[in-house]
Amino acid sequence: MSETAQEQYKITNEMIDEIESRLNKLEFMISGSLSTSDDNLMKFPLLQQQTIQSLQQQQKKATLKQFIQQTIPQKQPLPQPQQQSQILQITENIVETINRYQTKLNTIKSENESISAYLTLYNQCEKRFNQILDDQPTLNSVEKLAIILSAEDELLQTAKNLQKLNELEKFINTESLSSLPQLTLKLKPIENLHAEQEAITIQLNKKLGEKVQSYNDIIKELSFRFQYWDKVLTELERSV
């Protein structure tokens, strides 16, 4: 391989630092949108790169301090006879609970043929499933890193969208919207009154329809009578 090719494929510290910086930025931008997270760092909104690096260093120091405190063994007092008795009693209670649940599981298995058949089939195929999983190659750290960096733009855009949703959440969780259930209860009397008025309106419309029909029948009867009297008068005039 020529010197130019070697220089092209040479991995420098600057390249490693750049990749690490990109990964840290991705991780913080995505986790920074989770305002409800238990992690204090994740509750911050998206910040500038310098602020991001400062917060990351503080978090790393806190994590390292916590790890050291958990790693260093501390002197524990020897258990007294009473403490030993309590530990023994707790252990016996745990064993009794496990045995009780085991008995219940065996009862369920014996009373349900479908569950028993499924467990039998599962026990027969368990080794084959494990063999298939063991034969599948896992991704190494370089391949995982390549997958993450290949989706860098999508991850950044997702983080920005999550941040926008977090900013718009205040318009959804307003006091007026949160009081809607109480306002719905206050509307109940108005809804009942509206239902009563609707029933009255239906009855009035029905009566009005009956009156209109009676009016039409009267007008029709009068028309027949006028025609009859007109016919009678016409015949009398001809006879005279």
Automatic annotation (TrEMBL):
Highest rank taxon of the organism: Eukaryota
GO biological process: cytoskeleton-dependent cytokinesis
Pfam families according to UniProt: Dynactin_p22
GO cellular component terms, semicolon-separated: dynactin complex
Protein name listed in UniProt: Putative dynactin 22 kDa subunit
